[in-house]
Amino acid sequence: xxxxxxxTKINGEEVEFLCEPRQSLLEVLRETxxxxxxxxxxxxxNCGACSAIVDGSLINSCLMLAVEAQGKAIxxxxxxxxxxxxxxxxxxxxxxxxLQCGICTPGFLVASKALLDQNPNPTEHQVRHWxxxxxxxxxxxxxxxxxxxxxxxxxxxxx
Length: 159
Ligand code: FES
Ligand code: FES
Hints:
Layout: E1 4-10, E2 13-19, H1 25-32, E3 51-54, E4 57-60, E5 73-75, H2 88-95, H3 105-118, H4 124-130, H5 142-157
The structure holds FE2/S2 (inorganic) cluster (2 copies).
């Protein structure tokens, strides 16, 4: 099958790749480009493990075709930490012990970043509602929600 040339930006860097028209963004991120922080769980839009931010919107990368990334800006979990270290969300997930096996964690981090980018001061209800598309089989969610609220406070304080 002939491949399609796609130009995109991932975590602030210009990235070009070739993909088949049938390939999902998740498949290309992981298997072509090596962004293995983005996880494959259900591969049908139900678990949120493959969450990415595309042009400011939270998406399930298993449901997006890689060719649709043409001209778009993508953020994966690898783009959260900066030169100054871990993103506050990552620090707070560690401090609150918000992960166990960790398979869901990149998706929760990316989804939470998308929330805080849009709403820097969410209520607990808004956090729970926003993260309803991300499934975790280990933590029971409370520690994740506490970490997101704590990270939001930290970001608002500019720490
Ligand atoms: S792998 Fe995409 S939603 Fe589960
Ligand atoms: S930490 Fe194991 S599924 Fe969430």
